Amino acid sequence: MSDDKYIAIGVDIGGTFTDVVVVDERTHAIHSAKVLTTPEQPENAVLTAVDEMLQLTSAVPAAIRTLVHGTTLATNAIIERKGARTLMLTTKGFRDALETRTELRYDLYDLFIQFPEPLVPRRRRIGITERTLFDGSVPTPLLANDVHEALTSEHARDVEAIAICFLHSYANPENEKAARALVEEVLPGIPISLSSDVLPEIGEYGRASTTAANAYVQPLIDKYLGALDIALKDKGSSGAFFVMGSNAGTLSLDVARKYPVRLVESGPAAGVSIAAHYARTLDISHLLSFDMGGTTAKIALVTDFEPARATELEVARVKRFQKGSGLLLKAPAVELIEIGAGGGSIAHVDTLGLLSVGPESAGSSPGPACYSQGGSAATVTDADVVLGYLNPDYFLGGKMQLDRDRSIAAIDKNVGEPMSVSATRAAASIFEVVNDNMANAAAIYAAEQGIDLRRYALLAFGGAAPAHAWDVARRLGISQVRIPFAAGVLSALGCLTSPMSFDFVFGYMTELRHVNWARVNQRFAELEAQGRQQLSDADVREGVTVTLSADMRYYGQRYEVTVPLQAHPFDETQTDQIEDAFYAAYRSYYGRQIDEVPVETVSWRMNVSGPRPKLDIAWPGRMSSSGDVTPKGERSAFFPGSSKAVTCSVFERGELPVRAQIKGPAIIEDHESTTIVPPGAKLNIDNERMIVLDISEVSL
User: Fold this and answer.
1) How far apart are CA 609 and CA 616, in angstroms?
2) Which of 62, 154, 591, 664 has its CA 20 to 30 A from that of 321?
3) Does residue 627 register a pLDDT over 60?
4) pTM for the full model?
């Protein structure tokens, strides 16, 4: 921090709200804001919130030291099919890889099984004469005439991006680079994504799908980030601008614009990053991260202080709980599950008279009925208003007025009348169904990992999570719920706890006993130099860490396990040690070891990260534990299992000092969220100003 640059800003664009936090690094004061997302021009919401925050801190844009931005823009573009018109050049005979996929069915017994449509339609996937073999040899050089014909055909008319994905280009990118040179001659200025650049990894469908997605969203992300960067500079800011990656690390602006596919889980990753931060700060080795916003809920496991990580993810699933029913993206990411359950999730009664909640959402426009912006559907937020959990006069700290009568009318019409129950009973059913959806998803995920969630504490954040966390935890058998200060904007704060981080991968498939270690060492050395240079370009030169791993499997198997590796360089003397590490990783997944089958390597990975930023914040409000904790009022609320309203004491979050203790039922109001303390629960405030709920005696 310099004397003239002392403002750090975290931004998280969600489907309903855009959250912004500002930290004054001189005083350690924190300010936050939630504004409705502007889907057509998302930068407008960011700039509005930043202006509001700078006014609160009496700072000028020139004082901004850093701005870190998380966004769901790439994800939404893929789901809503609002990306660029993309042309794909691929090896002749292989243009249908996006549709044949892995040839696996996510439901063996569904005769009418559906998969998402490829981002690039068949007519714009053109085969090119060329061939590279798995060992990198090139028996058939690129036929330039095929490329020219493809680029001048009617299928290339009005294209906005080009993806090039040739067979085995991970082993030798020569033909892809030659094709790029020809494209630049014929169509100068058009964005080009090479599979050997985006994902130099074995696996034809994964590489093709990821490259197509990168090209599909690149013009949109490039335009958006460029416009936001220019707007900030026009305001007078010269601070560093970073973007959250799916791996819970931050990317430079240039890298984010070149590889936007790495931003698909950008916003949710920021939430997992702050959950891992609190796990380390509070010395909680087993933490369940529960992030419920306006559109979706995200659940992730933090075990031994680190979030689970994955090398691939899916978007745009046809069946939301069915793995394999979405578009596969091979990109480093924190491992989480995303559920269509948020404050804006729409409740409806189907033809069988069964209540469903989500995954459709009212979003920010028109939003829930209580927003009075034209929405007429019954949503989770409307249910929370009817049940008395939300104060219509104090939503967002009073900045936004909610209309309870509209909520009652929407729930009565869409749920109450079809089910022949009162609006209050219908609202309680919505509350219970959405909580059950989230708890079931978490339970299934944990069971797949062989994890007992009763050992975990639940960390709840996001605008809607503090109101629902206690019931979700109760359904999972979790007895402790933690709700941080500023829970409603915590993902934005998570952007400021994430280190600069770059992930690299290269494919090299061979038996472990036959690995050419000189080749592996050379590639790792090149990638490390590249990663360190990218960090250096962002003024990060000290505290750099390099982490290595390899995807390995038994010879002939289809799936790999990720095996951690020690620092390079490697040699033949370490083969046994690496093989033992594979056996240990394999046993942890499958519970067995097969000694008589050779082990083979598939992909080699490297992560280069800068130091983790320190979070030094002076939370607003009372810090002293002296004096009584006095409620600011009372409000009636309905809880599951009871037909009568319960009188709850209402407290202001900022007025609860360290070591304050409250017994439920109670309601804790903040500017960004509302925490519900059910009857039988006990609340205390820890040294981090965090709400700690003990629900072990809740018996609803």
Assistant:
1) 21
2) 591
3) no
4) 0.85
